[in-house]
Amino acid sequence: MKEPTRLSTIHRLRRYRPRARPRFKGQSFNRVIPNLMTLIGLCVGLTAIRFAMEGRFGSAAVAITVAGVIDGLDGRLARLLKATSRFGAEFDSLSDFLCFGVAPAFVLYMWSLQKFGAYGFAPCLMFSVCMALRLARFNAAIDGAPGPAYAYNFFTGVPAPAGAGLALFPLFLGLEARAIGSEWLESFAHSPALCAFTLAGTAVLLVSTLPVWSFKNFKVPSQYVLPLFLTAVLYVAVLIADPWAALAAAGVIYLGMLPFSLRSFHRLKREAEAMREPGVADP
Known about the structure:
By secondary structure, the protein is mostly helical. It has a single domain, classed as Four Helix Bundle (Hemerythrin (Met), subunit A) (Up-down Bundle), CATH 1.20.120. It has 11 helices and 2 strands, in the order αααααβααααβαα. The chain has a two-stranded antiparallel ribbon.
């Protein structure tokens, strides 16, 4: 009987060798996490609209605030996990428009502006349109040429979450007035004129070219680190004890920060131009 050759033995072993399991194709879970957070923020923004329709304005304010916190985390998490993508950027902008462009305007309309009917809806339209323009300008800048180095730490105009917080100032003020039992302050916060002025003013800040600190690589001098920590702890304590007053105060503090941001931008611009001039003059 003829012995099997080595080649036929190899073929026989290959025939009975178990097949390897096919690998699943798709993105890793780490790349999906930021988009999941954006999706949760979008759902929270939609829930704020439902709360406003039910007259639960405190819950609506909390929902928009939570959406702002999620928006601040998903982008940083995407950069940390190296999961940034064009899809994520577009999805984040759509979520921002609903959470910070539509929800705050709708909440304020249900809170106060519906007393003026169609005229009360005009500031809401202005705010939402300006928010859409602000987000579209931000997306267009991604594909554009990079700006100067000194402008890296600045936004052009007030960012979307901060704009939503400024727009909700009458609501925060009214909820605080209700908590402390101040009728005249609550009546003032319910004034349609105040809500219309707040929405219109915030809309102008959104589409403005005002340079605003982005705090991306914000460097704090060593002598200010401890006071900054103590101030943050104090603010968190106030936020826990009296959240509506803390949120209203945050809007006032943010507005007070804008002139300093403008001054810082122009100072950095002058320094950059001063460093460039000697190089131009050299032969």
